[in-house]
Structure formats: C-alpha cells, structure tokens
Design brief:
CATH topology of the largest domain in chain A: Tetracycline Repressor, domain 2
Largest interface: A-B, 51 and 50 residues
Number of domains of chain A: 2
Strand content of chain A: under 5%
Shape of chain A: globular
Distance between the termini of chain A: 54 Å
Largest sheet of chain A: none
Oligomer: homodimer
CATH architecture of the largest domain in chain A: Orthogonal Bundle
Number of strands of chain A: 0
Radius of gyration of chain A: 19 Å
Number of helices of chain A: 10
Structural class of chain A: mainly alpha
CATH superfamily of the largest domain in chain A: Tetracycline Repressor, domain 2
Chain lengths: ~200, ~200
C-alpha cells in the first residue's frame, strides 16, 4: 500500500468512527485529518469534500459487508447452511464494527431517512438472500418465502444485538455472562430462520 | 390536568423529541423550556436537573410501553394470539414514537452502553413474554423456548423496522408502496414467532 492509499484509508477509518459518534454535522474536517495524521487539505485532495468523504465511508462499509455476504451465499452446501453462514457473517461484521449501524442512525435522526448511499448495499444483501432461497427452492429444500422478509429478520436482529443486545449481561438483564450470550442469540436467529424457510418445518 | 401537571408533561414530551434528535449533551435546558412554553426555571422546579428530566423521559416512555405489553400479555386467548398482540403492540408503539429508539441509541453512541433507566423496562417486557410462554406451556400449546430470545426477536425487529425498515419503500428498495409494507413485516414477524414457539411446528 503506497502512502496515498494509506492516507485515503486512514481518512475513511477515522471519519467512520467520528461520524458514528457525532453524526455528519457534528464532525469537522480538521478533526478527521488530525485523527488520521494527515494534513488539513487531505480530505479535499482525496475526496473533494467532507460530504464526499462521508459517502465514501458508506460505500466502503457497504462494499465490505456485501462482499462477505455474497461469499457466504455462494458457498457450497444446503440453503439452510448458507443462510446460517449469512447470519454468522452479519453477527461477526457488527461485532467487529458496532459503529456501522450508528452511522446509519445519525443520518436517520438528522434527516428522517437512511442515507441514499445505503441503497446499493441493501440491494446486494437482498440479492444474496434471494439467491440462496431460489436455489433452495430449486432443490425442494425451502418453501416459498419472501426474501425481503428473511433478509430483514436477519439484519434487524444482528444490528440490534450489536447496538443494545450485547450489553444485556453488563446491565444485569441476563443473569450471568459466561461469554456465551452472543452465541446463544446467533443460534436462536439461525433456528428461527430455519423454521421460517424449511419445507420440513411444514411437512415433516 | 392542572397547570403544573401540564407543564411537567410538556417538558417531558419536548425533551423526549429534542434528546432523540441531538442526544443528552446536544440539548440545552433553555431549548427545552422554550419548546415547552415554560419558564427557564421549570426544569429545576419539576425535576431538579437536566439529567433528572432525561431519566424521567426514559421512565415515562418505558412505563408506557411496558404497561401496554402487560395488557397484551394478560388478555384472554391462546399463547400465540397473545404473542401476536405483543408484536402488534411493539410495532404500534414504535410507529407512534419512532424517536424512542433514537433516544437509546444516542446514549449508546455517547457512553458505549444503554441507559440504566432502561433496565426496569427490559425486565417488565421480558416478564410479559415469560408469562405468556409459561401459560402456553401449561396448556401444552408451546414448546420449551427461552423467553429472552423470543422477546429479543420481537423487539429487535420492531425497533429496526421503525428506524430503517419503514423507509425501504421511500428509498426504492421495496418496489411499490401500497401502504401494506408495514403490515407485511408485522405479519412476517408474527409468523416467525409462531413457528419458533408452537408445539405443532415440531409435531403436527
């Protein structure tokens, strides 16, 4: 990685963390360049504007998660095993990047709608789930279900767990934390998806 | 409602909207009292401090939703029909009060954890779901499931729908919006919960 790529990447990383904490209007270019150890002109040089950097943060994050989900969807195995891999990918992604949904939510709080840069990401994620369900139906493994609904169930539970659920042991709502709480929630979501889509759940 | 109660209620309502938009530190007492058409000393008079008003916002919101869920849980009918009523209550609540989850998320963004004032609310909601599942098991209607997981599934999907899902038609991810999208998501969540808990889903 050459120096310029390095600076660009650092700007995106630091901007992502800062925007997640304080929203678009709550973060200045000076703050971002300082955090990225770049000079004050670096945002203009690499992106053109603070707004363009902000969009680049969503594109980079969206591309990362969508690529991982497409890999999980394209793996060999049954439809249920690939849906399980998609759920695991979502839980892993949001565990590594709990700031990701906060970025979206600042935009919702400020503008009343999710950022337009999110649309291609949502489409690609939906297509990954559609692919698995279509192939699962072709093999008579899954029943007729709306891929949008299955995708929504997976994403909503993974995101809310990253945002609030993972704190339940810390605030005493889950009695003891032996570290297994996250795994239990993920297993529960997988099992609920399996029961939602599996043909055998209808006609064993 | 006398004048003092009225002022107190107005302060909570306006504070709730403002804190949801800008977080605890992003809102001043002057801004709240102006929005509530109260004098500058009203926050101190009614609550003691801005922090105490902030806690009162969570207590009032939490009490509202918990009371509705307890009513749904105590209704006559099968366990599945009461779980359906709980899901409906959650979707209705967050449709009426989409600012509610934003309040929580500002606190997560600012402090790294959900607000302590939320704990009694989470407990009461969990107890409502536990009650329905316990009674459903006593009538051999539902299988052995973890109430925490069922409650988590319901809440996470209702909250994420209120925050982001309801915008999917507007941003073009859902092809047409004939107004039925919210109803479809709610029906999907109900059906997924039914398949998760119902004994017949195992042994028809």
């Amino acid at each position: 990685m050459n120096h310029q790529t390095d600076t660009r990447t650092r700007l995106i990383t630091e901007a992502r963390n800062l925007f997640a904490k304080n929203g678009f209007s709550g973060v200045g270019v000076r703050e971002i360049t300082r955090a990225a150890h770049a000079n004050l002109g670096a945002v203009t040089y690499h992106f053109g504007s603070k707004r363009a950097l902000y969009d680049a943060v969503f594109v980079s994050m969206g591309d990362d998660i969508a690529t991982r989900l497409e890999t999980a969807a394209a793996a060999p195995g049954s439809a249920v095993s690939r849906l399980k891999a998609i759920v695991h990918t979502l839980f892993s992604f949001f565990r590594e990047a709990p700031e990701a949904p906060l970025l979206i939510l600042h935009e919702v709080a400020a503008t009343g709608a999710p950022p337009p840069a999110l649309v291609p990401l949502i489409r690609r994620n939906l297509q990954a789930v559609e692919r698995v369900l279509r192939e699962g139906r072709a093999h008579n493994e899954v029943r007729e279900v709306d891929p949008m609904m299955v995708a929504f169930s997976m994403i909503s539970q993974a995101v809310w767990f990253a945002l609030v659920g993972r704190f339940l042991p810390a605030i005493g709502v889950v009695p003891t934390d032996d570290g297994s709480f996250a795994a239990r929630v993920e297993a529960h979501v997988v099992e609920a998806i399996r029961r939602s889509v599996h043909r055998e759940a209808d006609t064993p």
